[in-house]
Amino acid sequence: MVEVEWQRMKAQEVRSFAARNAVAILPVASIEQHGPHLPTMTDTRLGHEVAIRAARLASDTRAVIVAPVVWSGLSEHHMPFGGTFTIRPDTFRALIRDLVEALVRQGFRDILISNSHGGNIIALQQICDELAPQVDATLVMTTYPMEAAEEIGRLLEEQEGVQHACEAETAMMMACEGRLVDQSDLAGQNSDTASAARFLKAGKASYRWRPFTHVTGNGVSGKPGTATVEKGEALLKASAQALADLISDPETWEAAQDLRGNETGGVPFRDQP
Ligand SMILES: [Zn+2]
């Protein structure tokens, strides 16, 4: 099997990936409560699994290297359940910025921030907005349950998409860390999915922060009751394929266009590498 894991390589091997203009994946996740049945590493473990599988799949078309998972994310909303780390948005921003800059300094020019935790999404988009005009690299941010939403939706029986410690996450953890999943009463952990849809909403389309206790009493949002190993394997496969397709598509890494006319003037547009 092709080696894609940064931390398993020697420095000169990592350098050879940069020299081949490899895509560098920086997985970003969290350590947080995942209900009574799943370990706190769920997002970190699944983010790792999906990134590694995607890198191997995409390696047919292009070299890909996967950095260690950033396990510290934005999880304030899970703190009331314990078992959770959260860092301040300022710390998160500085951390991701430093790691991206370290990749760029080593010659990586196409960088995929591969997120596996919902609470990180908005902050990561902001970080990309801030960094993209400053670094000599193309930054793409993805969250696999969203990139693979269509395929995931087809595989799930009781949910439309990935929620939390749910049908999907439970199944995927059964597939890759079965011994760590308490399968004694999965159906007993089911929670009401309707309230989750309104978790961070007010009015018709307005935003309002709420802790996760607002949605669930046991830390679960969704229906782990129908999770199976087979479903988990299919979900991992579909998620990895969606990311591999994103990585392999040349359009993903295309330079930004400048459609202004020649004499338009204005602010100089940053040259893409
Ligand atoms: Zn999760």
Could you explain how this protein is built, in words?
The protein is of the alpha/beta class. It has a single domain (6-253), classed as Creatininase (Rossmann fold, 3-Layer(aba) Sandwich), CATH 3.40.50.10310. It is 37% helix and 9% strand. The chain contains nine helices and six strands. It has helices at 11-19, 42-58, 89-105, 121-131, 144-147, 149-155, 167-177, 193-197, 229-248; strands spanning 23-28, 64-66, 110-115, 138-143, 201-202, 206-207. The strands form two sheets. Strands 2-1-3-4 form a four-stranded parallel beta sheet, with helices on both faces. Strands 5-6 form a two-stranded antiparallel ribbon. The radius of gyration is 19 Å and the shape is globular. It starts with 10 loop residues before the first helix and ends in a 25-residue tail after the last helix.
Tell me the structural class. alpha/beta
Largest sheet: 4 strands, parallel
SSE order: HEHEHEHEHHHHEEH
List how many beta strands DSSP finds: 6
- End-to-end distance, in Å? 31 Å
Q: Would you give the CATH topology?
A: Rossmann fold
What CATH architecture would you give?
3-Layer(aba) Sandwich
Estimate nothing, just give the exact number of structural domains.
1
What would the average pLDDT be, to the nearest integer?
95
